[in-house]
Amino acid sequence: MYNFYNINFIDGNYVQAINMLKNKAFMVAPSGPGLSKIDKNHQYRKALQAADFAIPDSSLMIILYLLFYQKKIQKMSGPKFLRGFLKEQFLRNDYVLFSIDPSDDEKASNNELLVKQGIKIKITNHYVAPNFNSDLVEDENLLNILENIDKKPSYILINIAGGVQECLGHYIKKKLSYDVGIICTGAAIAFETGKQARVPIWADSLYLGWLARVVQNPKLYVKRYIQALRLFFVFYLCRVKKNIES
To answer: Quick one: what percent of the chain has pLDDT higher than 70?
Structure first.
């Protein structure tokens, strides 16, 4: 694994990721914009550091890791991971998946996508998350549902905004009475349903997912990716403080 800010990144290996999730791991996929503020956002930082592993979703982070530490990490974007995960046979055998969605509209779209792919998931295994206070991400109602659901899920797929989903995943990991694989891939499923800008597979593999999003929705993404350039400063701080290990 590669350690950045005490977050454990795997080397973009899907088989390694899915095997860890089968052992009830907590997985995150932090974005470049999210990582660029990691030194300022305490709850988000703690959530990422508490994860069992992170997949290297951010092209900018991979480039900066190579620039600062001369080590190349293989990219594994959230959408790429999700496409592989949704093909897993175990999702077709039983009702093992629970989905946390950002809205009723996206709950319906996500359920339609999952069912079309042959995944066994009831609409009652979807939960629409509330609008969380950014300073405190806790949800006792969700916890109560997960504790009392008839068939306990093996995997929880969190599809809400980055920066919040990781904190919710950390909360579930700490509070839930049984072990479950927790997958924080945020908007990745929205790229598949068309609710957010679609990213061609070739663009994703060439580290150009950000450009595909900017072209389709510049108003939303230009400012976000400009702000993400602060990640260079975060890497510099890590180098100076020597709080990055491999």
So the answer is: 97
